[in-house]
């Protein structure tokens, strides 16, 4: 039956699954508890499956397949593809194609598949109730992309439904037999767990695009939100992620709650993941400082006062010029370092020439370290002045 709302056709299997499963999960939980079947082993199994599926979406579907922010050996990719299928969010191929459009056209209602500007519910799950743009999933589009060269991704594209059903409903039922709670395991570790996986991921597209801090940019709606970071193994630092999507980390500071980055980093120690991409610290710090400056201007709302004979705006501007200058110097040195490193890695270089390049490289590395220190110091000076001005404005 073709039912259209506006010019959009309802995707019946998706719509029925997404609308009915939350109700079925609640009824299932009530039955499980009231019938006296509650069992801690079932709860542990559900938590484990939740984590496996969530990590497969965050580290696998998202940071690996959609953004290519690192590489992984085939057993790791297979793990992500199997448990990602059990998250019931579609194939890694289609998930990535949609997600790349989300980044490329963020907040544009016509091209961002889950644009928050079409409302909270649309971004959360409304978009999934309708058939998607055929163009995005077309054979031509699928085959021309980089993901098509990964045989495992192509295999999962055609097999994710039965894999998802087996991992979600059959496996927990069999495991639950071990402690006499087969049906409970199917309901709690299968159905309830998959509904929780769904809505945790969906909250990134809805809540993390309207509640939280715009730490690095206000050019898009993405926000850093600790609550969604907690639910999704670290995806909630969404403002950072939209600003630097190629970084394998979302929570960039060491203490940020981002278990996904710890898993990817941990696997790199045993060489199961490689080429972990990160953004240079100074680029991150500069964007953060620019946003601090914007917020400061808003707080002061045009009021002006003098420090040592200059207005606060003049003092801050001169400190800003200082850090911008050190940033430029550092960027130039980084460029030189990059060129020289490529020259050094060139196998055709003569051996004696190579030792000379190595020497140059060591000197340049020291200069980069010094320039980085200078930049961080000048940002610190700007920041101290910002705090003083804010304290003065309050008094
Ligand atoms: Zn987003
Ligand atoms: Zn992304």
Describe it for me?
- The protein has two domains: 4-274, no CATH class; 281-394.
- The chain starts with a strand and ends with a helix.
- By secondary structure, it is mainly alpha-helical.
- Helix 1 (12-34) crosses helix 9.
- The strands form three sheets. A two-stranded antiparallel ribbon has the order 1-2. Strands 3-4 form a two-stranded antiparallel sheet. Strands 5-6 form a two-stranded antiparallel ribbon.
- A hairpin with a 2-residue loop joins strand 1 (4-5) and strand 2.
- The protein is built from 15 helices and six strands.
- Residues 102, 209, 222, 238, 242 line the site of one zinc ion (ZN).
- One zinc ion (ZN) binds next to helix 11.
Global morphology: globular
Bound molecules: zinc ion
The number of strands is 6
Q: What characterizes the major β-sheet?
A: 2 strands, antiparallel
| Low-confidence residue ranges | none
| Mean pLDDT over all positions | 93
Biggest sheet, spatial arrangement of strands = 1-2
Could you say which structural class the secondary elements and strand pairing correspond to? Answer: mainly alpha
What gap, in angstroms, lies between the N and C termini? 67 Å
β-strand amount: under 5%
Instruction: Round the Cα radius of gyration to an integer and report it.
Output: 25 Å
Q: What is the succession of H and E elements?
A: EEHHEHHHHHHHHHHEHEEHH
Any key phrases for this structure?
mainly alpha, two-stranded antiparallel ribbon, 6 strands, 66% helix, 3% strand
TL;DR?
With 395 residues, the chain is mainly α. It is 66% helix and 3% strand.
Topology:
Layout: E1 4-5, E2 8-9, H1 12-34, H2 40-66, E3 71-72, H3 74-85, H4 92-104, H5 120-124, H6 134-137, H7 139-144, H8 151-176, H9 182-205, H10 226-231, H11 238-243, H12 259-269, E4 273-274, H13 281-300, E5 306-307, E6 310-311, H14 312-345, H15 351-394
Antiparallel strand pairs: 1-2, 3-4, 5-6
Helix pairs in contact: 1-9, 2-3, 2-4, 2-9, 3-8, 8-9, 13-15, 14-15
């Amino acid at each position: 039956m073709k039912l259209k709302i506006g010019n959009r056709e309802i995707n019946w299997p998706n719509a029925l699954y997404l609308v009915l499963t939350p109700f079925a999960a609640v009824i299932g939980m009530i039955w499980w508890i009231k019938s006296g079947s509650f069992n801690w082993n079932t709860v542990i199994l559900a938590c484990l499956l939740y984590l496996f599926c969530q990590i497969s979406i965050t580290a696998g579907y998202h940071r690996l397949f959609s953004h290519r922010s690192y590489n992984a050996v085939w057993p790791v990719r297979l793990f992500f593809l199997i448990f990602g299928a059990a998250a019931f969010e579609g194939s890694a191929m289609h998930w990535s194609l949609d997600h790349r459009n989300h980044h490329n056209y963020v907040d544009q209602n016509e091209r961002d598949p889950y644009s928050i500007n079409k409302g909270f519910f649309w971004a959360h799950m409304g978009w999934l109730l309708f058939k998607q743009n055929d163009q995005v999933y077309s054979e031509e589009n699928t085959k021309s992309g980089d993901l098509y060269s990964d045989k495992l991704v192509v295999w999962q594209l055609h097999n994710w439904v039965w894999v998802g059903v087996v991992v979600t409903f059959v496996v927990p039922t069999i495991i639950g037999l071990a402690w006499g709670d087969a049906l409970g395991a199917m309901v709690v570790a299968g159905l309830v767990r998959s509904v929780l996986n769904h809505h945790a991921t969906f909250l990134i597209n809805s809540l993390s695009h309207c509640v939280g801090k715009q730490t690095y940019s206000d050019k898009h709606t993405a926000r850093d939100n600790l609550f969604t970071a907690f639910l999704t193994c670290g995806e909630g630092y969404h403002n950072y992620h939209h600003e630097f999507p190629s970084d394998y980390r979302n929570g960039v500071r060491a203490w940020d709650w981002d278990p996904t980055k710890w898993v990817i980093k941990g696997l790199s120690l045993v060489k199961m993941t490689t080429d972990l991409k990160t953004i240079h610290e100074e680029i991150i710090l500069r964007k953060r400082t620019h946003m601090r400056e914007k917020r400061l201007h808003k707080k002061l709302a045009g009021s002006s006062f003098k420090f040592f004979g200059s207005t606060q705006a003049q003092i801050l501007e001169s400190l800003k010029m200082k850090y911008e200058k050190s940033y430029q110097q550092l960027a130039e040195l980084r460029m030189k370092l990059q060129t020289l490193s490529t020259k050094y890695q060139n196998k055709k270089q003569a051996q004696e020439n190579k030792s000379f390049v190595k020497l140059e490289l060591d000197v340049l590395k020291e200069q980069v370290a010094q320039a980085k220190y200078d930049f961080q110091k000048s940002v610190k000076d700007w920041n101290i002045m910002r705090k003083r001005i804010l304290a003065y404005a309050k008094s």
